[in-house]
């Protein structure tokens, strides 16, 4: 709008189409997603721009948004310690600061918080911002390169965002959680542990049984040896005069 003052200050709104899946920044006109996860296809939005003059003038246009079922693996999440409503109003400035400090073309794909209810959008002091960067050849910059650059330039980025929000800002790149092992691998690991435990227990039982058999086998062998020695030398164990009694018995027989 070429007018100045209130006549040139525009306010944007969604007035028709599939508005449940999208929302719009009333000050900048930036459209962002609300609930298109898992969806694909083309969405039609009727957007209105209105000035703030005494005789309010409006204009409308149709915006077609195509959602691809595939998603880029180079999207990076940046966490700001600011309310989502504030970040949404300053999204253009946030994008500008990131482009200046990173040296790439940066696009803000999504702004959201842990608060899901619209009436709680201003209650959380932590906002997630999904961004993607493109180099001069219009190629996606790998996510790891973007994360590394964000960490290297964190101090400069926070200083630039502090001027945007007029308050101290923390800009953090969260570490991705370790990927959970697939169920098949988990089951295989558990089965392997159980099998190993069973094998160890069985081996211990066999060794213990073998040791027990050797012990009792030696005892039986000692008993057998004692018996055999007693047979070969019938007088060897005679300690109570039985030899004399035998001799006497022979004398009497003679």
Automatic annotation (TrEMBL):
The keyword Transmembrane helix applies. Keywords: Calcium, Membrane, Repeat, Transmembrane, Transmembrane helix. PROSITE patterns: CADHERIN_2. It comes from the Eukaryota. One of its GO terms (molecular function) is calcium ion binding. Its main location: membrane. Pfam families: Cadherin. It is found in: Membrane. GO terms for biological process: cell migration; homophilic cell adhesion via plasma membrane adhesion molecules. GO terms for cellular component: catenin complex. Signal peptide: none annotated. The chain crosses the membrane at residues 187-208. This is CAD87 protein. It comes from Setophaga kirtlandii. InterPro entries: Cadherin, Cadherin-like_dom, Cadherin-like_sf. Residues 1-77 form the Cadherin domain.
């Amino acid at each position: 709008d070429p007018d100045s003052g209130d006549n040139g200050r525009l306010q944007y709104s969604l007035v028709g189409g599939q508005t449940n899946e999208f929302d719009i920044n009333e000050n900048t006109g930036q459209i962002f997603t609300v609930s298109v996860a898992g969806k694909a296809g083309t969405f039609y939005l009727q957007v209105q721009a209105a000035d703030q003059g005494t005789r309010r003038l409006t204009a409308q246009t149709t915006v077609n948004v195509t959602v691809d079922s595939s998603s880029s693996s180079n999207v990076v999440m940046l966490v700001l310690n600011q309310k989502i409503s504030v970040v949404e109003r300053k999204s253009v400035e946030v994008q500008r600061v990131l482009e200046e400090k990173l040296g790439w073309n940066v696009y803000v794909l999504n702004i959201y918080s842990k608060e899901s209810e619209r009436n709680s959008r201003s209650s959380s002091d932590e906002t997630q911002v999904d961004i993607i960067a493109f180099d001069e050849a219009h190629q996606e910059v790998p996510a790891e390169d973007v994360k590394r650059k964000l960490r290297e330039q964190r101090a400069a980025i926070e200083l630039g965002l502090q001027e945007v929000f007029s308050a101290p800002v923390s800009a953090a790149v969260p570490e991705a959680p370790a990927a959970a092992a697939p169920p098949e691998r988990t089951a295989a690991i558990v089965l392997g542990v159980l099998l190993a435990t069973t094998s160890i227990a069985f081996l211990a039982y066999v060794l213990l049984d073998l040791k027990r058999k050797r012990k009792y086998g030696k005892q039986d062998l000692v008993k057998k040896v004692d018996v055999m020695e007693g047979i070969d030398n019938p007088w060897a164990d005679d300690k109570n005069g039985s030899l004399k009694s035998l001799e006497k018995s022979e004398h009497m027989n003679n």
